[in-house]
């Protein structure tokens, strides 16, 4: 087993392409899933304060993008203030494409970790139950490449929910 290039975990690794150059970084499942917007253990991304100093430009780009995702938190803002990228690496980091913005049924912007309330009964395919209107879904995750979908836990199961059926609390 090798080390994750972000958190340093000794685990099975997945090669993840860092667009638009298609260079890759080796990430553990936690970091790879977190990169997609899934929830990670509290404090996991603190490892970015070390990975941002990597000699690999691809790791620096991933670190910069993740730090920007959490720039409202003091530790990430401090790290971003210290991080210097060569101009071509910074252009690469910013070239990720347009950021997907998730909005609820009334147009409020959703963020990872928000709490939403279902505005309609939703049958859960494969779950064998119906998620009832008024159910609070805490700690949502955003589906990175689809502005119309979020993920959250309802009755102990992780499900994908269309943003048109939720309202931010």
UniProtKB/TrEMBL annotation:
Gene Ontology molecular function terms on file: hydrolase activity
This protein's UniProt keywords: Hydrolase
InterPro entries membership: YjdM_C
Residue ranges constituting the Protein YjdM C-terminal domain according to the UniProt record: 102-168
Origin superkingdom: Bacteria
Designated name of the protein: Phosphonoacetate hydrolase
Species assigned in the record: Celeribacter neptunius
């Amino acid at each position: 087993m090798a080390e994750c290039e972000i958190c340093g975990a000794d685990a099975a690794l997945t090669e993840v392409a860092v667009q638009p150059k298609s260079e890759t970084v080796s990430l553990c499942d936690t970091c790879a899933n977190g990169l997609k917007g899934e929830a990670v253990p509290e404090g996991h991304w603190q490892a970015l304060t070390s990975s941002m100093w990597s000699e690999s430009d691809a790791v620096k780009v991933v670190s910069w993008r993740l730090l920007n995702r959490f720039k409202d938190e003091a530790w990430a803002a401090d790290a971003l203030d210290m991080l210097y990228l060569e101009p071509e690496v910074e252009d690469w980091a910013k070239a990720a494409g347009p950021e997907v913005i998730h909005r609820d049924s009334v147009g409020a912007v959703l963020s990872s970790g928000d709490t939403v309330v279902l505005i309609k009964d939703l049958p859960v395919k494969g779950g064998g139950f119906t998620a009832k209107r008024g159910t609070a879904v805490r700690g949502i995750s955003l589906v990175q490449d689809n502005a119309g979908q979020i993920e959250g836990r309802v009755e102990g199961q992780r499900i994908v929910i269309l943003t048109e059926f939720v309202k931010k609390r």
